[in-house]
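Q: What would this complex look like in 3D?
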Amino acid sequence: MSQNINMFPQGLALGEAFYNREQERKKLASCFLNNEHMVVVAPRRYGKSSLIKQVLAEIKIPGKRIDLLPATNTLFVNKAIKSCFIELLNQISPIAKQAKLKLIDFIRNLHPKLTLSMFGQKLEVSSTQPPEESIIDLLVGLNAAAKKVNQQIVICLDEFQQVGLLKDHHSIEAAIRHAVESSTHITYVFSGSSRHLLYQMFSTKSRPLYHLCDLMELERIKPNVYRSVLLERAKKKWKRFDDESVIEEIISLTKCHPYYVNALCRQLWKLQDAPARNVAQNCWFDYIETQSNWIKDDLAKLTPNQRNILAALAYQPIQEPYGNEFSEKVKMGASSIKKSLSILLKDDFVYKDKDGKYKVLDPAIETYLHKISYFDFLE
Ligand SMILES: Nc1ncnc2c1ncn2[C@@H]1O[C@H](COP(=O)(O)OP(=O)(O)O)[C@@H](O)[C@H]1O
Ligand SMILES: [Mg+2]
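A: Here is my prediction, written as structure tokens for the whole assembly.
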């Protein structure tokens, strides 16, 4: 794979591929170093995981991201925390066997043992307690070990909203609160893509995690940042790069959504010659064509009223969705518009931008709806 293609990754963006987010990086780095726990929220594919991983790499302290997206029960969460514990404990444990044994003695309630693997001595733990108690013991034990070796560490519980959906979420949330409140050397980052669920977990008085930490809402990267990053990368890639309008086109097609900027640029940067504006457009439309299966599936999950509103917003973002004009356009009354729109907002199909305009969140869905003239088709 050529170097240029890696500059616009589909997966996590790290190192050279990672651009900007300076304020967020500074803020997170300071939190990580000062034991200030955070909730990082943004819709899917806005760059939460990349940002957290990048900051961890920059400040060079041990950290581990636990992906909770597949969590379906307490046992999964427990196992994930246990393997995180083992990995971080091995990272911070001293190399000398004697010092290692001392650390083991320190966390003896977790029944630690040293095992010999191909890579040398490894620490393992075995626990026979119920999952919630074991979560507390593991996290509190890890904090004690980190304190003992005087090392700050970070645990990121990614897609944390999944925990809130579990049957016995209350006891896991309570266990985590206990561990977080007594933590001196572990900084916790809770990140996730469901704003609605995360707000419920951290902002509802009756929930264990109520007001536990500050919230960072990750926005899209600003057009100006993209302008300079893409211009620099274009000049590096093509000897002749005179027509900067293609950059405006990329920004306008992808609406600065990080995942889609990378998806489109990945294709464009494969071209021998600098692309013109219309090449970028065609490339984007071809790309949307390849995405149509999941887009159709996603749209099929919506009710006709929700689809109707989404299609209208794909045509034209709107500030006053409850006014007469919009109501006539979608042929719905204000109260059903309100009902459908609130679900579209909750499920991240629609977002309200800084100017108060309601827009389709995913630019691929927006283009798809626009392109197939969905709105005309409804009439
Ligand atoms: N700061 C960034 N620089 C470059 N690419 C980014 C950046 N943030 C996100 N991306 C790209 O956006 C997409 C989604 O990123 P990811 O970190 O997985 O988002 P999330 O965790 O919010 O779902 C990936 O293709 C990634 O490469
Ligand atoms: Mg992620």
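A: To summarize the key features: The chain has three domains: 21-217, 223-297, 302-378. The first helix runs from residue 3 to 6.
Q: Very helpful, thank you.
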